[in-house]
Write a structure and sequence with these properties.
This protein has one domain. It contains two helices and no strands. It has helices spanning about 20-25, 30-89. The chain is rod-shaped. By secondary structure, it is mainly α.
């Protein structure tokens, strides 16, 4: 969603289908200010969501790296048992 759906900021209701509220419908300086603040709010929310998503993926990567390390240790342990069995022959 971009500002292309709003029409010109502060010039009444946007193209999104909603009324936009009485301040925005009136247009003028207050309408422009209201529209700009609304745009700022949604850009900030989007940044917060993207940051949370990035953090989630980083945590998933860390989890999987630790799981790989754990499984590699298990592989090495089993290889050691096989070597021991070969030496016992």
């Amino acid at each position: 969603m971009g500002s292309d759906q709003l029409g010109e900021l502060g010039k009444g209701a946007g193209k999104g289908g909603g009324a936009g509220g009485s301040v925005r419908e009136a247009g003028g300086a207050f309408g422009k200010r209201e529209a700009a603040e609304e745009e700022r709010y949604f850009r900030q929310k989007e940044r917060e969501q993207l940051a949370a998503l990035k953090k989630h993926h980083e945590e998933e990567i860390d989890h999987h790296k630790k799981e790989i390390e754990r499984l590699q240790k298990e592989i090495d342990r089993h290889k050691g048992k096989i070597r021991k069995l070969k030496h016992d022959d």
